[in-house]
């Protein structure tokens, strides 16, 4: 009975004000954080299911806010996207990750790949090609060692425009992944028109594996469809041995998730090959 009463209203008002205050504070702080290099990159291993070998890593941004602690990219990337900050963050991330990966490949003598997430604003940035090319060149990293991940939702905003941008990126020799597949409304026909190399199955599907037959059917179907057009399939958010086993049986190529390794700083990522 209190849902529309004055007490209730005030409660929402306070909660809303707190959310807005936190947001304002983070927005102002993010600019300083970029300059102070409070942002850093964590790396999570990507494992080949058939062999258990680590074939690469995904770069995931972190922000150590001095007062509030570690802030998730889920919270600060959208804020950065609302201003020009995302471009600066994107450039820094590409530079850091290509350099880190070039170093790690030299140390280990392995052909590992690093995957970097691109936001919608970055894909729209006319300087993106130059930024990617320059980062690779400066780091002396071969283009095939870089994979750029773009979410299904970003790609589907403007499929025709995206196709042209992806084509140009691909000419550089980098590989391209569709991220969070299954969370948007991409149709198979639309997907086939995009020049992609990798399809990443969202963790919401992986979570259901072992609980529902239906989920197995869906994931198996995605894998078969992706393979039929030559895509490599990576499953995200694998947390148990059981999920890994099912994915392997369904023919999924690679996987990442807490079961294989958490995102970690460069100091600990990819232990030297035995
Ligand atoms: P994403 O690209 O889908 O990344 C996967 C997310 O799942 C990461 O969250 C990762 O830490 C988390 N994860 C990995 N394994 C597991 C698992 O086994 N279980 C569960 N529950 N979660 C797992 P994170 O690091 O918080 O990043 C969230 C999102 O922020 C990313 O989702 C990506 O969309 C975005 N993001 C991160 N770094 C960047 C970046 O450098 N640029 C852009 N534009 N976006 C980024
Ligand atoms: Ca990703
Ligand atoms: Ca994802
Ligand atoms: Ca996601």
TrEMBL record:
<protein>
    <submittedName>
        <fullName>EAL domain-containing protein</fullName>
    </submittedName>
</protein>
<feature type="domain" description="EAL">
    <location>
        <begin position="23"/>
        <end position="274"/>
    </location>
</feature>
């Amino acid at each position: 009975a209190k849902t529309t009463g004055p007490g209730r209203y005030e409660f929402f008002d306070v909660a809303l004000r707190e959310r807005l205050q936190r947001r304002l504070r983070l927005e102002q702080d993010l600019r300083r954080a970029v300059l102070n290099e409070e942002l850093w990159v964590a790396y999570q291993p990507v494992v080949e299911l058939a062999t258990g070998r680590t074939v690469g890593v995904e770069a995931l941004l972190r922000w150590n806010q001095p007062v509030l602690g570690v802030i998730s990219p889920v919270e600060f990337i959208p804020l950065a996207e609302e201003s020009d900050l995302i471009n600066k963050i994107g450039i820094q991330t590409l530079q850091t990750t290509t350099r880190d990966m070039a170093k790690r490949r030299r140390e280990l003598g392995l052909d590992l790949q690093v995957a970097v997430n691109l936001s919608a604003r970055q894909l729209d940035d006319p300087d993106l090609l130059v930024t990617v090319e320059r980062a690779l060149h400066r780091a002396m990293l071969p283009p095939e060692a870089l994979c750029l991940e773009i979410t299904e939702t970003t790609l589907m905003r403007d499929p025709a425009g995206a196709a042209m941008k992806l084509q140009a990126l691909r000419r550089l020799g980098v590989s391209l992944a569709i991220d969070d597949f299954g969370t948007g409304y991409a149709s198979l026909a639309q997907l086939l028109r995009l020049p992609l190399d990798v399809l990443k199955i969202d963790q919401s599907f992986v979570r259901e594996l072992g609980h529902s037959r239906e989920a197995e059917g869906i994931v198996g179907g995605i894998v078969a469809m992706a393979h039929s057009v030559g895509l490599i399939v990576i499953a995200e958010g694998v947390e148990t041995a059981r999920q890994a086993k099912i994915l392997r049986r369904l023919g999924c190529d690679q996987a990442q998730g807490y079961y294989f390794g958490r995102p970690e700083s460069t100091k600990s990522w990819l232990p030297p090959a035995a």
